[in-house]
Specification:
The complex is a heterotetramer of chains A (587), B (345), C (570) and D (278). Chain A has 587 residues and is an alpha/beta fold. Helix content of chain A is 39%, strand content 25%. The longest helix of chain A is centred in the last third of the chain and has 20 residues, at 560-579. Chain A is globular and about 70 Å long. The model of chain A is unreliable at 269-297 and 577-587 (pLDDT under 50). Helix content of chain D is 72%, strand content 0%. Classes of the chains: A alpha/beta (587), B mainly alpha (345), C alpha+beta (570), D mainly alpha (278). The interface between B and D is large, with 82 and 76 residues. The complex binds adenosine-5'-triphosphate (ATP) (2 copies), magnesium ion (2 copies) and nickel (II) ion (NI). Chain B: It is a multi-pass membrane protein.
């Protein structure tokens, strides 16, 4: 037997839906060998997740599968498509495990994280429960969850998006499987943690010869980790080859387009020369112009969002835990403020507070000049009519029982437009427009959220946020699940709209490339505190805080060669931190 | 609206100035309990006022019912004077309240017993029988409902559904009759009467006689609970976490048992909270059919014969059971689903 | 055979009616028949008057009186006592009779069988010339039959040597009862003891008895065990050693017990009469137990609109013609109710019953009804309901106070909870409707019905009831003597419809206070013809099932059971 | 259209819908096709066994043709059952959803009201009501609804407590949706499984309760009747083996409830978009 761990041959997956059959995967062949990392990239909705789900036989009941998916169990290859469920159980987790794309809903809400991780251990190993639990804590630690002992006793809803994603990764690593299928394992992670996870995966591959099927849209990650790349489009693999070859000399038109769309990574750090991608996006100049104007300080513009010394607490096991400490932020009309920071640093929490979903224990949130906390009833509604929201969890924030069209039209239904109710036809027209803007096919409005891919759902959420003409947009990781080409287009839509409407925007993201490209100013959060803020260009080119520099250095570049350099630079920086803290680091 | 923002998720309680960490925990729950107990007292008080008012709104008063159609006006007047019924309703209520607070529920008009004796005699028996039915029912219904959900839209599911519906739409009385006819009078397997005798021990000593009444009481509950269980399980089987659990290599059975079951118990827990007052109130039909005098019968005959003190006593017992049931259901749900713990504050 | 070997009988008590009183002094709410039946097996009355021997009359073997002699002027009665002893060996004496009078006289406010002007008010003197003789003097002349059947029967000689005290540790002293306070104290003491159900089988007070049975078991749930009184020295000795009185929570529970053989003497629902074989095959005889009662619907003669209509005899006659008692009894009640045409109970037959009542003056005859109404100016309106179109007092007119346009539309307020009753009124509604008398049936629990039909005058707000029914178990049970002054007498408490008729009043007065024995028959005739109420079939007390081999079970129409007469054949 | 198709795919749901339609035809059109005397009694022809004198199901104690009676009775049972069941479900669901969703003081007050309602035994309430209200079909529906909305209120509140923590509800809130809108479009639809199950039980309850409240004098008045009452009357004849008095009304009730249940399941399938994952 060769080293083949996974062999997919002529795989076809078709979904039966109300609106007819949806072919998701159309005859793909793929092989993953021991110790190899195969990256599956491609357009959002091209069938990456479906392919990875089929590896573990986890497709929903509405899927029809033909072809074969063989997994190597010891020396035998077993076809997942034909193996009955009760035998698959033995393979899952032990031979192959999976990291799911949407970590927010992937965890059981009523079970502690420790138990959920320990369960994976207990499924395949005969160890005492206590041992399994210890192992769970170790796993949580290895994926970079702070205070793993305490976190093990917490429930999923008490974690940030990135933390949950790491728990899901911990589960996948639990039994040291021969193959890990990781579906966008780092989408919700900030770059530093992402770098850590990538290091972890790399060491697994290197030491245990674990095979990795990595689905991702982040070309930087591909460049950093992958040996081979398969590019998917429209359910087919259009190009497959070694990483250097595909990334540097793409053969297929689609691959080229994809790479073209990669946003320019920010400078790695002040000490590292940034290797600019030769293909800078044309739109980026526009962004820079506007950045320039903001930097000039146009304080006459109306303040649409004003956080004044806001502190936010959560209550965990009866104790108050501070998530955000005395945060000051302002967003002016027409301004885009990027909020970046480590996973779990309180970005989403701050975002929720802006919308009045959390009441600050200190300080005040002024939305369009009014305190959200004090606004009630009609006043509150009128206030929120001018605010668009994108939630971090694209799946969870869509009502599973409503058609996508209804969800997108919901703000219209709530607020009408210009103080008037819209007719059904008007709504339908607006929904079409929005779907088109976020590059979703017509007809999508008649399907349900679960029938979409992760990236598609995220775009649905974005479409909903833009349905009205907001004066303020609070977007929590609005593009994390998008492949670069779609992301580029969506960002362009955002930018155009922004130019047209002049809304203010709080843009929460861990993707520094996007932040760099899009925002005028940036604020950096760490452990709930604002550590640095200023014009994006300034902060990114000359970070005052070591933390910021570290963040920047962690951004992987989409060029394998360049990425190797960046990685080394980052490691240097990290070790340098121990020796001599950068001047001006206020801790 | 002056309440907290509802959309605040479960355990999140932002906006409260942070008290010392550890005391906050106990204080939070302790305060919740105190508040609930106070609310419960109000409920019980209100219920007693309503029932009292309704009783006195009934035309004619209790005398006719107690003394019968042959009673003379003098006797009726004497009866009313003796029982304080000639006083203003408010005074009557206050004196009832005063006595209840000292634990004296008064004497039955008809039973030649004090109300507390009458209740003390029947309550344990009723609790035993209905409690057994409930336990049996839950033991059958929960697995049955889960099984049906797992086998959704297969023949078994249809058959069990139909069975549950048939069982539910059969009047309990008829069901009991059928069981007696088949299992007792034709097959001779079990006695047709529930265990006779006063004490719990005596009742428990006759397990064969318990079978039919417990079964009769359990069948409708099985039907109810299994339907709710099926539905809730179906909801949860569609959740993403099920897929995650399966991906870990957890066998489907275990996924259902360890993950889905717990998350699907919400309606059953809510129903269980509701069954507590039912247990205290007794199951009239079973008691009537199986010659097992309990709370149901006590209440029913008191209602029929205008035995006000007994009626009020029973209602008090039932209201206490209601508020306790509702509290327990809330606590259990919070225990099962950490997201809802915000409600406990 | 098997039956011969048995020494016990299991008797089913009425459903959901557990015994709760045994003291032979009744108080409010404790008067249920099964209570007094149990009491009577422990303490014999002074005079027994019932139907336990097949017809209504005195049952001398079951009482303590020997001879009852009325004086010529009928003002006094001399009663000599049987030569009997209490279970503790003390003789039964005239003092024991006197104790009863003393106690009841001093406590008329609590003694439940009290009725003003009757016992003990009508007895002006109780003399005890010797140990075995009692002489009662009455305030006026009364009908001796009435006295015997309904007044003397109330008297229960009490063991003065044991009970004439007001506390456990006192020495009994019959003289104590002669003072008013003493009487009250003793009464109170006895009642208080009687309120302790748990001690019924053990309290020494209740061990001093003179009846054929003693009480040996009394559980909280109402199960009673009677054991043959070995010290009994009367003529009514028991044959069955142990009688178990079993309580049931419902008829269904009882029927199940019957079918499983746990009951020797029980009852079944009326539907059982449809197919008695099912019980006969189990070794039971099915026997309806007729009650000494009448069943009727009182007309509310003071109803603002319908009162004047009801006051017209021809209307009542017409309506009575529309009630098909025979069919209702046979088909709906399956024989578990017997037609009744007048104020005197018809089963068993008695000397009180007139030929006229027996013959039914107003048999089912819709045509006769139609004629009667048509002849008095009632014509059908557009909706088919009869309407008075010719008001006035002439012979062919509607009658006094009946207004033009008054519709013959009646709301019957019927007792709910019985299929037979429901069906009976569905049937009545159907025949009435066809005859142009619109009927609306409302139903409510017995209590509600009774509470909402107090005698009233037209100007009272709650005088809006028209024709109520409360007779699923018989509307009115009589004592031994079926005189109706409490039901039909002008102004009587239970005369709900305020019926008032001078002639009937006279007849009823005479039935108690004249010595003419034929007066009851005249009353029976007049009541049957004048229709103070609407007569309906009288439901039986219960449909009994009696185990084959159990003898001596003649069913007393007074609904009392006499277990001492029972025996197993063989 | 897709909803209809989704519904139609659940074959049992279609069977249920058809059965309901057939029953409605049976009670509405039946008497036209098979006319019988249902007003005047006929004691001469009472208690006939099936097949005699052209009575396919025999006659009852008043001589009414049983088959014809089944049709008449069904009108009341279906009307009262469905409407009272619907009333209780709607009121209970709304109440519970609002309480669970809004939370806080509102929840406490609303749920204590439910507690109080549950603590007052229904028997007692009906008994008192029977002395106050006149029995009409409308009144019956209201009264039955009044005593049965409490359990769904509790059930739905429990569900709402967990639904309100979902992100999509939070999202609706953040978009400025009114409580009303959130409850109606997000909270309740996501408790639909429980609502549907409860609704079928409510209908069964209501149909049987009509007979029960007749006992207290609040039921339908002669010559009308309902299935529950027919069944109760019939049960008296159980030892005689008079199946024709018991089975037809019993089956009718079971069919209605079963059919509604299957229709409910079908509706659930329409809303339950995720379907099976196993
Ligand atoms: N409901 C909750 N209960 C308790 N703790 C919470 C809750 N939600 C978040 N936290 C904690 O608050 C901190 C900040 O979380 P937040 O979701 O704001 O992070 P974030 O910056 O959005 O991170 P990410 O990039 O991973 O999404 C984390 O440590 C998290 O564990
Ligand atoms: N359950 C389903 N029912 C119907 N269609 C589905 C279902 N799941 C996925 N699809 C469709 O299948 C296609 C492939 O989806 P998949 O999730 O594999 O995309 P993806 O490549 O992972 O995209 P992304 O990068 O956005 O996650 C999409 O067009 C999606 O709409
Ligand atoms: Mg995907
Ligand atoms: Mg976040
Ligand atoms: Ni509000």
């Amino acid at each position: 037997m060769s080293d083949v761990v996974l062999r997919i041959a002529d795989l076809n997956v078709t979904f039966t839906t109300d609106s007819g059959d949806v072919p998701a995967v159309r005859g793909i062949d793929l092989e993953v060998r021991r110790g190899r990392v195969v990256a599956l990239v491609g357009e959002s909705g091209s069938g990456k997740s479906v392919t990875s789900l089929s590896v573990l036989g986890l497709l929903p009941g509405t899927a029809r599968v033909t072809g074969s998916v063989e997994l190597a169990d010891g020396d035998t290859l077993r076809d997942v498509v034909t193996t009955p469920e009760d035998q698959l159980v033995d393979l899952r987790g032990r031979v192959a495990s999976m990291v799911f794309q949407e970590p927010m809903t992937a965890l059981n809400p009523t079970m502690t994280l420790g138990d959920q991780v320990a369960e994976a251990v207990l499924n395949h190993e005969r160890v005492p429960r206590a041992v399994a639990r210890e192992r769970a804590v170790e796993l949580l630690r290895s994926v970079g969850i702070p205070e793993p002992e305490r976190r093990a006793g917490q429930y999923p809803h008490e974690l940030s998006g990135g933390q949950r994603q790491r728990v899901v990764i911990a589960i996948a690593l639990a039994c040291e499987p021969r193959l890990i299928v990781a579906d966008e394992p780092t989408t919700a992670l900030d770059v530093t943690v992402q770098a850590g996870i990538l290091d972890l995966l790399r060491s697994l591959v290197a030491e245990r010869e674990t095979a990795l099927l990595l689905v991702t849209h982040n070309m930087g990650v591909v460049a950093d980790l992958a040996d081979e790349v398969a590019v998917m489009s429209g359910g087919r693999i259009v190009e497959h080859g070694l990483v250097d070859q595909v990334l540097l000399e793409p053969a297929h038109a689609y691959t080229r387009a994809l790479l073209d769309a990669v946003p320019e990574p920010p400078p790695a750090s002040s000490t590292t020369a940034s290797r600019r991608s030769s293909l800078s996006r044309p739109g980026s100049t526009g962004a820079e112009v506007s950045t320039g104007s903001t930097a000039g300080g146009d304080d006459a513009r109306e303040v649409v969002l004003d956080l004044r010394g806001v502190s936010l607490d959560y209550r965990v096991q009866g104790r108050h835990v501070r998530a955000v400490e005395r945060l000051d932020l302002t967003v002016r009309a027409g301004e885009m403020l990027g909020l970046v920071g480590e996973s779990g640093s309180g970005k989403s929490t701050a975002g929720r507070a802006c919308l009045g979903l959390l009441t600050p224990s200190e300080g005040e949130v002024l939305l369009l000049g009014t305190s959200v906390a004090r606004a009630r009833g009609r006043a509150r509604r009128r206030l929120l009519a001018d605010v668009g929201v994108v939630f971090q969890d694209p799946g969870g924030s869509l009502d599973p029982r409503r058609l996508v069209g209804e969800s997108i039209a919901e703000p219209l239904a709530i607020h009408g437009r210009d103080g008037r109710r819209l007719t059904a036809a008007e709504k339908r027209a607006r929904v079409r427009e929005l779907l088109d803007a976020v590059r979703l096919p017509a007809g999508a409005e008649r399907r349900y959220p679960h029938e979409f891919s992760g990236g598609q759902r995220q775009r649905i959420g974005l479409a909903r946020a833009l349905a009205l003409r907001p004066r303020l947009l609070v977007a929590d990781e609005p593009t994390s699940a998008l492949d670069v080409s779609v992301q580029a287009e969506v960002l362009q839509v955002l930018r155009d709209l922004h130019a047209e409407l002049g809304f203010g925007c709080l843009f929460i993201s861990h993707d520094l490339g996007v932040v760099h490209e899009l925002t005028d100013r940036v604020a950096v959060l760490r452990s709930g505190r604002l550590v640095e803020s200023g014009a994006t260009a300034d902060v990114f080119s000359a970070p005052r805080e070591l933390y910021t520099a570290e963040l920047l250095a962690s951004v992987p570049a989409p060029d394998p060669v360049a990425q190797r350099e960046r990685r080394e630079a980052r490691l240097r920086l990290a070790s340098g931190e121990d020796v001599a803290p950068a001047p001006g680091a206020a801790r | 609206m002056t309440t907290a923002i509802p959309a605040q998720s479960g355990a999140v309680e932002a906006g409260v100035a942070a008290p010392p960490p550890v005391r906050a925990a106990r204080g939070g729950f302790g305060r919740f309990l105190i508040r609930r107990v106070l609310q419960s007292l109000v409920v019980i008080l209100v219920v007693s006022v309503i029932v009292f008012a309704l009783l006195h709104a009934l035309p004619g008063g209790p005398a006719r019912g107690v003394l019968g159609q042959q009673a003379s006006p003098e006797q009726i007047a004497a009866f009313e004077a003796a029982n304080g019924l000639d006083q203003p309703v408010v005074l009557q209520y206050l004196s009832f309240l005063g006595r209840s607070l000292t634990g004296d529920l008064g004497d039955s008009y008809l039973l030649n017993q004090s109300v507390s004796d009458a209740i003390a005699l029947r309550l344990p028996k009723t609790l035993l029988l209905t409690g057994l039915s409930l336990v049996v029912a839950v033991l059958i219904a929960v697995p049955a409902g889960v099984y049906q959900a797992v086998r959704r839209n297969r023949a078994v599911d249809y058959w069990l559904s139909t069975l549950a519906i048939v069982a539910y739409s059969t009047p309990t009385f008829f069901l009991g009759m059928l069981l007696i006819l088949l299992l007792s009078q034709t097959a001779g397997l079990f006695p047709a009467a529930a265990p006779q005798g006063t004490g719990i021990a005596e009742v428990l000593a006759q397990p064969a006689a318990l079978v039919l009444p417990v079964l009769t009481g359990a069948v409708p509950i099985v039907a109810t609970f299994s339907r709710y269980m099926r539905s809730a399980t179906l909801d949860n089987l569609g959740e993403d976490y099920v897929r995650t659990a399966r991906a870990k290599g957890t066998a489907y059975r275990r996924v259902v048992l360890r993950h889905v079951l717990r998350n699907s118990l919400t309606p059953v827990v809510a129903m269980l909270g509701y069954y507590l007052p039912v247990m205290f109130g007794g199951a009239l039909v079973v008691e009537q059919l199986f010659n097992y005098p309990g709370m149901g019968l006590l209440f029913w005959s008191a209602a029929q014969s205008s035995d006000f003190p007994v009626l009020l006593g029973c209602v008090l017992v039932i209201s206490v059971a209601t508020v306790v049931g509702s509290l327990v259901a809330d606590l259990v749900q919070a225990l099962l689903d950490p997201r809802t713990r915000g409600g406990l504050r | 055979d098997e039956a011969a070997a048995r020494t016990d009988v299991n008797y089913a008590l009425p459903a959901n009616a557990t015994p709760n009183w045994i003291v032979p002094l009744g108080i409010a709410g404790k008067l249920a028949t099964h209570n007094s039946a149990i009491t009577r097996t422990l303490w014999e009355p002074l005079v027994a008057y019932d139907g336990s021997e097949g017809e209504m009359g005195r049952v001398a073997s079951a009482d303590l009186a020997d001879e009852i002699t009325f004086s010529d002027d009928s003002r006094t009665v001399t009663i000599t006592l049987d030569d009997r002893t209490w279970s503790d060996g003390e003789p039964v004496t005239s003092a024991d009779v006197k104790l009863w009078f003393d106690l009841v006289k001093g406590n008329t406010d609590v003694w439940a069988s009290y009725s003003e002007g009757r016992m003990p008010d009508n007895v002006t003197e109780v003399a005890t010339p010797d140990e075995k003789t009692v002489e009662l003097t009455f305030d006026k002349v009364y009908n001796p039959e009435w006295l015997q059947a309904s007044q003397l029967t109330l008297v229960v000689p009490l063991p003065s040597h044991a009970w004439a005290k007001s506390a456990d540790d006192e020495t009994p002293d019959p003289a104590l009862a002669e003072t008013e306070d003493g009487a009250k104290a003793i009464f109170e003491y006895l009642i208080a003891q009687g309120e302790d159900l748990g001690t019924y089988a053990t309290n020494p007070l209740w061990q001093t008895i003179n009846g054929p049975y003693s009480l040996t078991g009394f559980t909280d749930s109402g199960q009673v065990e009677l054991t043959k009184n070995e010290k009994y020295d009367g003529d009514d000795a028991a044959s069955i050693e142990t009688v178990n009185l079993l309580p049931y929570t419902s008829t269904d529970a009882e029927v199940n017990a019957v079918r499983s053989g746990a009951v020797d003497y029980g009852y079944i629902p009326t539907t059982g009469l449809d197919a008695p074989e099912q019980y006969e095959s189990l070794g039971f005889a099915v026997e309806p137990w007729a009650g000494w009662s009448i069943t009727y619907l009182p007309y509310n003669f003071n109803h603002p609109e319908l009162g004047p209509v009801y006051r017209q005899l021809y209307v009542r006659q017409a309506l009575q013609h529309l009630v098909d008692q025979e069919q209702i009894s046979d088909v709906i009640w399956k024989g578990a109710a017997l037609p009744g045409y007048g104020p005197v109970p018809q089963n068993p037959e008695s000397d009180f019953l007139s030929e006229e009542q027996k013959a039914n003056p107003y048999p089912f005859d819709p045509e006769a009804a139609a004629t009667l109404l048509a002849d008095h100016g009632w014509t059908a309106g557009s909706d088919g309901v009869l309407e008075c179109t010719s008001p006035g007092t002439g012979d062919d007119q509607c009658g006094e106070d009946v207004e033009k346009g008054q519709q013959l539309a009646i709301t019957i307020l019927a007792q709910s909870g019985s299929a037979e009753t429901d069906n009976m009124f569905a049937e009545i509604k159907s025949t009435f409707d066809q005859a142009g008398v619109a009927v609306t049936i409302e139903s409510a629990p017995l209590n509600t019905v009774l509470s909402s039909i107090a005698p009233c005058t037209a100007d009272q707000a709650d005088c809006d009831w028209q024709l109520p029914f409360f007779g699923t178990a018989g509307s009115w049970y009589f004592g031994g003597y079926p005189s109706g002054e409490r039901v039909f007498g002008t102004g009587a408490a239970s005369n709900f419809g305020s019926y008032s008729d001078d002639e009937l009043d006279t007849l009823m007065h005479d039935s108690t206070e004249s010595t003419d024995p034929s007066v009851m028959q005249a009353y029976s005739k007049y009541g049957a013809e004048n229709l103070p109420v609407m007569w309906l079939p009288n439901p039986v007390y219960q449909v009994s099932v009696i185990k084959e081999g159990l003898e001596g079970t003649t069913q007393d129409p007074l609904a009392s059971f006499h277990p001492q007469r029972w025996s197993w054949a063989g | 259209m897709t909803a209809l198709r989704r519904f139609a795919r659940n074959r049992l749901a279609v069977v249920g819908a058809v059965a309901l339609a057939v029953l409605v035809l049976f009670v509405l059109v039946g008497p036209l096709v098979y006319p019988t005397e249902q007003v005047a009694t006929d004691l001469g022809a009472a208690n006939l066994p099936p097949g005699t004198d052209g009575h396919p199901l025999g006659t009852d104690a008043l001589g009414y043709d049983n088959l014809g009676r089944l049709m008449i009775a069904g009108r009341v049972s279906l009307l009262v059952g469905v409407l009272a069941g619907a009333l209780a479900t709607v009121v209970g669901t709304l109440w519970g959803a609002v309480a669970g969703y809004v939370g806080g003081v509102v929840d406490a007050v609303m749920m204590r009201v439910v507690d109080a309602g549950i603590a007052i035994p229904a028997i007692f309430l009906l008994l008192v009501l029977s002395t106050i209200v006149r029995p009409t079909v409308g009144m019956m529906i209201v009264v039955l609804g009044l005593v049965s909305w409490l359990v769904p209120a509790r059930l739905i509140r429990a569900e709402a407590l967990s639904v309100r923590t979902r992100d999509y509800v939070v999202a609706a809130r953040a978009m400025g949706a009114t409580h009303r809108r959130t409850v109606l479009t997000h909270v309740i639809p996501n408790t639909v499984g429980t609502v549907v199950v409860n609704a079928t039980f409510q209908v069964a309850d209501a149909i049987l309760l009509v007979a029960y409240i007749s006992f207290l004098g609040m039921g339908v008045q002669p010559p009308t009747t309902d299935w529950g009452a027919m069944l109760n009357d019939g049960i008296n004849y159980i030892y005689q083996g008079a199946w024709w008095l018991i089975l037809p009304p019993g089956l009718a009730i079971v069919i209605v409830v079963c059919a509604l249940n299957f229709v409910g399941d079908g509706l659930r399938d329409v809303v339950d978009v995720k379907g099976r994952t196993a």
